[in-house]
Amino acid sequence: MTRKLTFGYLFDFRNPEQWHRPWEKLYAEIIDVAVWTEQAGFGAAWVPEHHQAKDGYLPSPLVAAPAIAARTSRIKLGTWIALAPLYHPTRFASDCAVLDIISNGRLEIGLGIGYRPEEYAAMGVDFTKRGRLFDEWLEIVTRLWAGETLNYAGQHYQLNGVKMMPPAPRGRIPLYIGGFAPKAIERILTYGDGYVGVPEGAAIYMDKLRDRGRNPNEGKVRIGDFFTVVSDDPEQAIEELAPYFLHVTNSYAEWGGEGMETMTLEEIKTNGKLKIMTPDAAIAMYKEMQAQMPLDHVSMMMPPGIPADRFVHYAQQFADKVLPAFA
Whole-model pTM? Predict the structure, then answer.
């Protein structure tokens, strides 16, 4: 049975030099746009995390998310993704419990371990130990949310008689974990509610479910489709939007992650990385994705630098002509 598919947007709050604006105005505008997406019928607003980025990529998702929560009432919200080992697990568990209370149970968390040593160095955390840190971290956070009084003697964390107050209202906050390595997928099966990432990772996750004798359709998958935009006029749209998405690809390429390579403006217009689709083509693509995996959510993105009114122009076309096909 195909589960209901919802759509949302990721907001990274970047402020690239070529489109630079006063930070307080940029943040206020992006929060306004996130609030608008709820009114337009979208299902979620997500905030990511990176550190030491020249364009100001959002470093504090658990500060930004409550600003969106306070002005919305229906949409899911949370991290896509938080770099878990950069937080103390007790602090993270407590902050999320409070945010879940504020948002009336709308918080959902996407987690990963990251790939940039610079981010770990900035937080004084040993990059080479991030996997082992993450394993202990996940155990502590999920047990605290479950209401345990926790005594924990790990390699990296030692806790004595810790009990979270206020408690997590639901006894758990949904966790979606990303990654490709077998160990990353094992973490999902042990601690998580589902996979967050790209179709290739989702296929590995589904294979692991099969290996455990479980029906892969009982899993949950969330896909970041960050380079897809719907437009009735794809030729015009790619001319307008390519510079903003080029900044995304080239900044990731500079970091050496996300599978990106440096491109020219002409390349991103023509090589298929940026997909400008008609509404009918987008509907067909997402229906096919639903048939291939237990997909429950797709997130697109508001690319950095784009004026709010132009983002709304394209998001409104998606809301009007794609969302009804998945109602």
Answer: 0.96
